[in-house]
Amino acid sequence: DVTMLDIIQNIEHVIDIPMSDAIQFALENSTDILVAEKNILEARQDVERLKGKRYLDATINVSIGLHQISETLQKVYRHPLDEQTASVSMSIPLADFGRGRILYSQARTALAIQSIQTKRIKDDVRELIKKCVLRHSMLYSIINDAQQAYHLSCVAYNETLAEYHLGRWSANSLSEAVANRQEALVEYYQAIRDYLLNYFQIRNMTLFDFEKNECIKKYQDKASTIQ
């Protein structure tokens, strides 16, 4: 089991997180961005598939035949090159033509909308990771301040306890010192919690362990290979 002492010992120094690396890893590994780019690819494929169908798809049929008439069967084939006939027909599906143009226009609109949404998602991811990285150092400074405040509260408690045993301080003073020490300890633990939550959010967004300088994905790939 991991104790609070173990956690405190593991954050004796702030973990270095370069802003440029964090942004790059977040943009490369964000699930939302990967899904959005997949949707763009599918939308672009729909546009290409419907591109050729927006024109008229006319069908031309040509037939040629020979026609002979005679009172006897022998005379029918006497002059086979006479009485030639030909016919030409064209089929134009106007309904399909209109529907094809509409579908193509809708596909282009869907592609444009998906492109705008993907850009917005990338901007959101970029801004969020920036915010987390900027808070990273600030939250670590808060830990140091809270730790110092807790140590001072412990010193004040010990002094108050000693004075209380000597009869120089009342029980109310001792209770106040205990309450101050407890409050300082809670604020210290909350500072550690906020720091770790922010750091693991960065890890989750980037899939990178900045403490060990290792990509987290390789552990996932290894686990999937074992399964």
Q: How many DSSP helices?
A: 7
Multimeric state: single chain
- Helical proportion? over 70%
Tell me the radius of gyration: 40 Å
Shape: elongated
Looking across the biggest beta sheet, what order are the strands in?
1-2
Q: How many distinct beta strands?
A: 4
Low-confidence stretches: 219-227
* Largest pleated sheet: 2 strands, antiparallel
Structural class: mainly alpha
Mean pLDDT: 80
Strand content: 5-15%
Q: Please provide the ordered H/E string of secondary-structure elements.
A: HHHEHEHHEEH
End-to-end separation: 27 Å
Brief synopsis:
By secondary structure, the protein is mainly alpha-helical.
Structure description:
This protein is mainly alpha-helical and 227 residues long. The chain has helices at 4-10, 19-29, 31-51, 73-76, 94-165, 171-206, 217-226; strands at residues 59-66, 84-91, 208-209, 214-215. It has a two-stranded antiparallel sheet with strand order 1-2. A hairpin with a 4-residue loop joins strand 3 (208-209) and strand 4 (214-215). The chain is elongated and about 100 Å long.
